[in-house]
Every structure is written in C-alpha cells, then in structure tokens.
Amino acid sequence: MMGIGGINIYINGNWIEEDDREKIEVLNPATEEVFAELPRGDEDDVDKAVRAAERAFEGWRNKSGEERGSYLDDVVELLETEKDNIARNLTKEQGKSLSEAKGEVSASIRAFRYYARKARNIEGRIPPTESDEVRSFVEKEPVGPVAAISPWNYPVLLLSWKLAPALAAGCTVVGKPATKTPLAVREVFRSLDEAGLPPGVVNLVFGPGSTVGKALVRHDGIRKVAFTGQTGTGRQIMRDASTNIKELTLELGGHCPLIVDSDAKIDDAVEAGVYRSFRNMGQICNSINRIYVQENVYEEFLEEFVERASKLSIANGIEDPDADLGPMLDESGLEKTKRHIEDALDKGAELEYGGEPPQGEEYSKGYFFKPTVLTNVNHDMIVMTEETFGPVAPIMKFAEVQEAVEYSNDSIYGLVAYLFTEDLEKAYDIAEDLEYGTVGVNNVSGGDAPYPYSGWKQSGLGTELSEEGLNEYLKPKHIRAKSLR
Ligand code: NAP
After folding, report:
1. Boundaries of each Aldehyde dehydrogenase domain copy (predicted)?
2. 214 and 300 belong to one structural domain
3. Is there a domain that residue 485 lies in?
4. pLDDT band, residue 3 (cuts 50/70/90)
5. Are the C-beta atoms of residues 279 and 389 closer than 8 Å to each other?
6. Cβ-proximal residues to 485 (8 Å cutoff; 6+ apart), any chain
7. Residue 65 is part of which domain span?
8. Would you say residue 280 has pLDDT above 80?
9. Domain count, the chain
C-alpha cells in the first residue's frame, strides 16, 4: 500500500517494521478510496511504549531548560521543512483543503516555537517564612510520562498542543492519534525522530481508542493523560484514569453561540459567522453551533449570511487547494448532520439554504454536503443543544441581549462564545456573564499558543496552551529547610 514505507509504530527511538498484524485502512473522505494502511497496535505495544517513556523520563527531566528548548527549536525547523508533506497527508485523510491543512501545520509549529521559549524559563519561587531559620523553596517538577490522545478533526494541531508543553516541562510522551487520521501525525513523529530526541522521550502507538487508548489511560506507568475528544469519551477516561489517580487535562465537546447585537457591524458579523460556522465543515470544537441575532438587524443579517454561505466553494482539497470546504470525515458524521437537520425541520424549523449534498459529477463520491442555514429554531431542537459537528447554522431572533446571554448559557458546554457589538462597555459586561472559557468579541479567532484554552462545564478540565497549559505538566514541590543560616 502506498505511502507507508515500512514505518509505523514508534517506540524507544525505533520504527517497528511491517509485520503480520491486522491492518487499519485509511480512507480519503473526498474519494472514499483506501489510500494507506497501518498495522493495528495492541496492548503489548502500549506497555512497551510506556516502559520506554518511563526509562527516558529521568534523563529528559534532568536536561536543562536550555537543552530541551534547543531540541524543540530543531523540531520547529524540521516541521517547517516538512510542512507541505504533512499537510498533504492531512488533506488526504481528513478532507480539509491543502491551504487549511498548511494552516494547521503552521499553528502546530507556533506551539512548538512558543514552548521552546517557555522550556528555558520555568521558574520556582521562595515565599517568605515565619522564621529567619527556615527557608521555603517552591520548585516545579515534571509530572512524569504523559499519554497524549488526539481526535481526528485537527490531528496534528491537537497533538502538538500536548507534545510541545509536555516536552518543554520535562515530561516524556506516548502519543495516540485518532484511528481515522494517523498519517499526518506519523509524519510529525518523523521530524521528532530526526531532531534526535533521546530514545523513549516520544513514542507513538496506533489503534482503537477502546483497546489501545484505554490501555494507555489505565497503564500504571502513565502519570498524566492529556486528551481531546468527545465529552462521553472524556467521562470514560476520567473513570479509567481514576485507577491510580492520574493528572488529567480534558478538552471536550462544545456548543458555541454567536450573539449579534443591533449595534454590530453586520458585514463583519456575517463574514466571521459564516467562516466559523462552516470551516472544516463545522467539524471543530469551537465552531459556531447556534446564532442569536437582535430582531432589528435579523433580516439584514440573515439575507447576507445565506448569500455568503451559498458562495462557499466545495471541493476535493488536493485538487482545489484553496477550496473553502471539503468533504466531511465519514458517513457517520454525514448521517448525524442529516439527522439533526431532520429533527429541526420536523419540529418546525425552516430551511433557508443547503440541507443536501452539492450536485455534480465531482461529488458523486465523497462525504460532501452543502452548508446549511436554518431559521425558526428553538431549544427543543437537537441542533440548538447538542454538538452537530457538521455544517449547520441555526439562526434565532432575540429582543433584549440579556435573553441571548441566557440562551447561550443554557448549555452543558462552556468552550467558546462569540459576540458582535460596537459598544465595548456592553461587550465587557456580556463577556463576564457568559459561562465560557473563551469569549471572542468582534472576532472568531481560534486558540493559539500564548492564550489559555480552557473548556468550562462539560467542555473540559484544565487548560491547554499558554503558561497555564505548561503548568498542567508541572507539579509544585515545596522544600522546607530549617537551619540554612
Ligand atoms: P473521540 O471519539 O472522543 O476520540 C478522540 C480520541 O480518543 C481518538 O484518538 C480515539 O481513538 C480515542 N479514544 C476513544 N475512546 C477512548 C478511550 N476509551 N480511552 C482512550 N482513548 C479513547 O473524539 P473524536 O470524534 O475523534 O473528535 C471529535 C470531538 O472532539 C468533538 O466532540 C469535538 O468537540 C472534540 N474536540 C474538542 C476540542 C477542544 O479543544 N475542546 C478540540 C477538537 C475537538 P479512536 O480514533 O481509535 O476512536
């Protein structure tokens, strides 16, 4: 099978050669063709990978921050060189266009660059004590071997958000990407290998979450699990990690509102709203899942929104590298999207645009679907309360902005909320009222290395990115010493 080159699982600095294990097929969602296959890992691989990470931990944690930072600098350089290759693999297995895939790799490189700097600046503190004869030193020490488990929608980025701070902190890592998107991650590990990280510092296993992922989470050599994925999986991971009380960072599902108040710049709100509703076919944790628009500007917003959505180009992202949209990942995501739309229509929603696959020979294969706009929606409909993870934008009218805030907070999730208004004083008040880890005011930018990304409520536990994200891989140690004078 093309593209494999006899390399796959990576343990203790070695690529395990092809063997007679069962294979995992990798499908191109734009063509439905199997274009690669990888050997399916098992619990024995997990054990070997964790043992390698345990053995490597002592040496890696004892390297200076300068040394670890310098390794990460080399990773940055290698990833820059490999950017196009990684992005091509990503487009083929995930479906986003080549330019979007390059954007994902660039954002991953930014995370490595940011944490290369941070590795050199991990500081403790010396708090005052009650007596001159006592000194207190608070140090930060790496937690130990980490299991880094990532989903399929941003496989490279979301693994990098774990690898980079873990390595900077002095932790060793066993990575497990989603089964449907293993190839681009494997290419990232080639760069980690070439950077000459000591054997066992990073390891990579493949295989189903229900066996390989579970074994990793339950392994007694793992001290921390850093996971991004569905809230339901997060709950299971909490249970499995409780066996020996592991540290946890969980970045889970979302259901993100956009509020457009009457004083918003409508053109800007529409442009940003369309982008963040449909990018990567709505398969993003911080996608806009529901839109609340003040009644005075509702008609204008809706008209412009539908017009813009209808102009988004849809294509195989290798053939048209700048396409706005590609296919969805798979049949099950497509079916879920259709189910959510059907549920809304059955309960009285109106279809303003989309609701079907695009027409044409070029879409005869692949999981393509038109961006879909619904109105006359309410919170009894699944689309207004559950993550569709598909290209659907339900739009609802409100009279007073406080109503929209209440609707926004009427959710088990609390990942990201967006707000458009020109009144910045009001914006600040509303932002404080929104029960979300991130609030975007007059912009819909995604998470980036210097800023904390933290899911509230059932959107997660702990924080990724920024200084806070680094601290998730460090444990404070208090050394209290008497008679040091
Ligand atoms: P998922 O089904 O939960 O899987 C995520 C990862 O966990 C995959 O590698 C999966 O392996 C593995 N896994 C599954 N069951 C496991 C278990 N019991 N123990 C250990 N690992 C297990 O999520 P997904 O469908 O890939 O991703 C989409 C979800 O991720 C959405 O809900 C989205 O909102 C969320 N997400 C959140 C963020 C955030 O930052 N908050 C960012 C992106 C995505 P397999 O692939 O083999 O099943």
Report:
1. 15-479
2. no
3. no
4. very low
5. no
6. 132, 133
7. 7-252+459-478
8. yes
9. 2
Angle of helix 266-278 relative to helix 298-310, nearest 10 degrees, comes to: 50
Query: Exposed/middle/buried for 479, CB within 10 Å: 0-12, 13-18, 19+?
Result: exposed
**Domain check: are 41 and 113 in the same one?**
yes
On whether the CB atoms of residues 308 and 325 are closer than 8 A, the answer is: no
Query: Is any atom of ligand 1 closer than 6 Å to the C-beta of 252?
Result: yes
Grouping H, G, I as helix, E, B as strand and the rest as coil, residue 372 is: strand
Amino acid identity, residue 317? G
Query: Could you give the angle at the alpha carbon of 272 between the alpha carbons of 178 and 153, nearest 5°?
Result: 5
82, 251, 352, 464: which one is catalytic? 251
Each residue of 322-348: pLDDT tens digit?
999 999 999 999 999 999 999 999 999
> Tokens 């809706």 correspond to what residue?
302
Rounding to the nearest 10 degrees, give the CA dihedral for residues 405, 407, 413, 414.
-10
CA distance 12 to 294: 57
Q: DSSP letters along 66-124, please?
A: HHHHHHHHHHHHHHHHHHHHHHHHHHHHH---HHHHHHHHHHHHHHHHHHHHHHTT---
Position in ligand 1 atom list of the atom nearest CA 460: 41
Helices 155-169 and 65-94 cross at an angle (nearest 10°) of 170
Report the atom number in ligand 1 closest to the C-alpha of 231.
Answer: 32
Number of the ligand 1 atom closest to the C-alpha atom of 214 = 19
Does the Cβ of 222 fall within 6 Å of ligand 1? Answer: no
Half-sphere exposure of 412 (CA within 13 A, CB side): 9
CATH number assigned to the domain comprising residue 197: 3.40.605.10
The residue whose C-alpha atom lies closest to atom 13 belonging to ligand 1 is: 209
Cα separation, 90 vs 150, in Å, equals 14
Active site residue 285: yes
- Which residue's CA lies nearest to atom 30 of ligand 1? 229
Whether residue 160 is found in the same domain as residue 243:
yes
Which one from 82, 104, 171, 285 is the annotated catalytic residue? 285
Taking alpha carbons only, the member of 386, 443, 446 closest to residue 410 is 386
Mean pLDDT of 400-412: 97
Whether 386 sits among the annotated catalytic residues: the reply is no
Domain contains 33: yes
How many angstroms separate the CA atoms of 469 and 162, rounded?
A: 9
> Whose structure tokens read 């902190």?
169
> What's the rounded mean pLDDT across residues 202-218?
96
pLDDT score of 70: 98
Q: How far is the CA of 162 from the centre of ligand 1 (A)?
A: 14
Q: CA-CA distance, 250 to 449, in Å (whole number)?
A: 17
